[in-house]
Structure formats: C-alpha cells, structure tokens
Amino acid sequence: MFNKILIANRGEIAIRIMRACKELGIKTVAVYSEADANAQHVQLADEAVLLGDAAPKESYLNMDKLIDTAIKTQADAIHPGYGFLSENASFAATVESAGLTFIGPSADSIRAMGDKAESKILMKQSGVPTIPGFDLGIGFGQAPYGDDKTKAKRSELNAGLLTSVREIGYPVLIKASAGGGGKGMRVVNEESELSEAIESARSEALNSFGDERLLIEKYLADAHHIEFQVFGDKHGNIVHLFERECSVQRRHQKIIEETPSPLLIPELREQMGQAAVAAAKAVNYYNAGTIEFIFDPKTSQYYFLEMNTRLQVEHPITELTAGIDLVQWQIRIAAGEKFPFTQSDFHQHGHAIECRVYAEDPANGFLPSTGSLLQFIEPHGPGIRVDSGFSTSSEVNHFYDPLLAKLIVHAENRETAIQRMQTALSEFVVHGVVTNIDFMQAVMAHEDFANGKVSTRWVEHTLESGSLLPDVQQQAVELQRLIAAALADVVFVGSKSQPAVSNETDPFNPWKQTKSYRN
To answer: Which of 279, 282, 370, 449 is at 20 to 30 A from 429, Cα to Cα?
Structure first.
C-alpha cells in the first residue's frame, strides 16, 4: 500500500480522496493555486504545496509542477480526481515514467477511449450498439484552417456530407471528437442550419481541445442519458456496479442523477450492464470508469455514447446503493490488489439521488455567480450526505467550476428518496451567491420527474414553456433583495479603543473597491 498520495485536484473531490486515504492510513499532499490558499482541501491535507497563480494552466493543469511536487514530497502516487488532468493520457504516462503510480486506468485505455471516433469503432468491433453517424474529421482538420488546399477539400466533401446526413435523418448532433462537457456540440434540426453549425462547433472544439475533428450522429430528441459504473483490477477482473440515470441536464451537463433508473426493467439492466463490461474489456480497462449510453424510451434501444476513463462526479449514489467505497478501491487496485468480488456479489439496495448545488442563476441562463459565502449551512439527517469543499466565508471565484456541493440522499425507495431530497434542499442555506437550489426543488416537485419522464432536453423545454422559470426567478429576485437589505445594515466593529466604522466611512469597504473582479 502507498505511504503518501498527492491529490492533483481541488475542492470536494480532493477532500473525498483525503478521507479515503485517512481510512487506509495513507498521508496526503494537497496542491493549490493562489486563489485556493484558504480552501478546505488545503487545510485538511497532511501537507500542502502552492503550485502557482489562479489560472489552471499555471496550477492544476501544470503537469511538470505536479510531478515535481510529488517527487519532492516523496509521494508514491498521484490521484487526479475528475476534471483537470484525470483523462489526460500524456499525464498518466508521464506519472508512470517518473516512477510514480497513476491512480486510474492505463494511458493506453485513456487514449483509446478519449477519442470519440476511435472509441466508436472499438465498440462496433466489440458488439456494443452504437448510434448511427459518421466521422467528419477525416481529411478536414489537420491543415491550417485558411489553407487553400484545405478549403478545396472541404468544398469537395460538402456534397457527400449532405447526402450522408440525409441518410441519417434530421435532427442530428454535431460534437467534438476529442472533448466533452458540451463543448463543440450543436443540435441541427434542418439542412439550412448544418453548414453554420459545423463551422461553429469546429471552431469551439479547436479552441477548447486543440482538435477540430467532429462527429455527426443521429439525434434522439427525447432520449435518456443512462450510464453504467464499471470497475476492474490489473488481474483481468471487471464488473459493473449498475446504472445511473443522468437525464436532468443543462447545456449538456448533468444537474441531477439517480440510481436505479426508473426506466430499466431487470432484463434490460442486465443486458446493458453486460454491454458496459464488454466495452471496458475491449480496452483492457482497470480502475473506475463509466460507460455512457443514450437510451430511447420509445423503442427501448440503447446506444454507446462515450466512456469516461475516471471517477465520476456522481459516484456517491453508486456507493450508497452498491455498498462499496469506490475511492478506496481505486487506491487499492492501483496498488496492485486483486478485486475480490464477482458480478453476483453486487445488488442494488434502495434508491439514491444526487443534486449538484451550483453557484449559478437558473433565471439568467445558468450563468455562474461569484462572491463570498455569507452563510453556508449544510443539511443533516439520516440518509443525507453532503460532499463539499466550501464553508461560511469561503470565496466563490470565476476561475473554476461553480460546483458548491453534491447533495446526496439514500432511502428505501424512489418516492421516499425524492421526499428526502426535497427536505434536504429546503434546509440547505447558502447566502452570498445565487444558487440553483430553488430550481432543483422545482424539478423534484414536478410530475414529469416523479413519473421518470425527464429526457436530456427536458430542462430546456420546461424553461421555454415557463413551467419552472417564473417561480425560480421570483425566488431569486427575493433572495437578492433580502441579501442587499442585510448588507445595508452591516457595520465593521472595531476594538474597545476604536469605535465601530460604518460602510460609508470605512476605507476597506469592499463595495468601495474597484480594483477587483465583481458583477
């Protein structure tokens, strides 16, 4: 077993990994940027090392600094968490070549599944259903964008492109071959939109991932997003730990996840689970990973979407229903242990839901909200778990993802779990930034969610129809009004020898400063 692990991440996932390490008797090294100097993950680690300024490329994305820090602190291994460098094959390979252990899959597995076009070919060869579509990148993107030869090649392929898209049938989904998170993704409903959508998606993909290759696939308008957790060791053992329903999304990013899915019957669950294991075996996968499927409820057909070669944000709901600590087993598998369980050892127990609490404004296009957390009070009670890296007085800045906490509940059945989540959301107090808490309460109370009829475009449609937005908008406005009224009464209290200072005369009043970023 490792003696010390460097955690190449921040926030709640860094803290989650630290807790697993402490239970295994392993010391931890936190890394941080200047913006995170007072963050909780820095305070909770055994050691903490400053990497650089707030920009991710100078800190959490700086491979050389991370590996150098691990060597200097005598760490045995690096855990990447999720996001940042967790699915970077070059980082995984460099960690191993430096004599350290990468707590995750092999660089070859990451590379094979990191390219959506290549992974789709692999899945077809392995008998895993794939959605109809084709690779738009071949012959397009490697030459300079404005090169005359490239322009001619683009023009030459356009006629064939239109024919191929017509064969698939509209609507179609354009997405970046080398990325995720909704970047480089466009839905095209008719032919007149196709050319502009391709160029827009290509430009965004190039800026986000340095790779302008695209895929075009049949778009299933009312599809559900269902993923299967897979887990394997270095001895060839691999199992699935059942599914997670992830269809409540905004801008192609998940907000609410649950398990079991309300749509799957046992036979279909077993079939999709076997397909997930086959997908993982195709790339000799070990450690934690997720096979993502698009599911059409009208036909009960499912199609491979992509594989996430890392731990997922929503892993807690699987832990609660499958009865396993995924992070501890990530570490143990990386240390060479054999996974002692077979597929028949796992069963789903109860129902779990996770809501991602973001500092963002649903009434304003889910734009991020920044500021100091004047109050941050987490709910507590039986069956309630909160994974967070924030507390009262923490700063929410614009440099990183606006995720404040993951609120997770577990109950004996879905109905009770929904009721428990509604209660927990009502008891979650966050003041100082606008959050999506009220929005998630509205989702939990909606009959479509209760009936399991929430597709990947449901949030978009219900916002457009006004069935969710008006109440949320009114609540957000009221919250902002209350905070403004409270701040108007704040005074800065001095010592016994110095009187209190009012907002108007205090030279350090933040509302009088103009040198810092603010809304």
So the answer is: 449
